[in-house]
Structure of Phosphoribosylformylglycinamidine synthase subunit PurS:
Amino acid sequence: MARVVVDVMPKPEILDPQGQAVANALPRLGFTGISDVRQGKHFELEVDDSVDDETLAKIAIGFLSNPVIEDFVVRRLS
Amino acid sequence: MARVVVDVMPKPEILDPQGQAVANALPRLGFTGISDVRQGKHFELEVDDSVDDETLAKIAIGFLSNPVIEDFVVRRLS
């Protein structure tokens, strides 16, 4: 059994209104020095050792992200 | 300038219907060996070097997560 993390983020050229809302709110709330915020999704999967990286990439492309507007990173935790 | 990542996940005792939906769908779609999926949020912040860890924790608790039902991890990328 391994724990796998998949982080899904909007591509850099895609607007991110949720992240923008946080970035705009922070100075009004007294927090300065944060110049940009982007929001994405974070998945944690419990994965059998038999599942290879290619299968994980297929799952990330097909079911965890929208490859037209999002990028993803797959990371195996120890 | 530093890049800071904040991962926000539902606490272990909180049901996660989105993650559950993915976990239940994968075997039907031909992907076996994934025993659990949990879905959370992933934030990437561009942060001034003057912003300390305490401030980042305040931002994560107050604006990026709901501490009643979610845990968060703050990570500074190199």
In short: Chain B touches chain A at residues 1, 7-9, 19, 22, 25-26, 29, 31-48, 50-51, 55, 58-59, 62-64 (CB under 8 Å). Helices of chain B lie at 17-28, 53-64. The two ends of chain B are 10 Å apart (CA to CA).
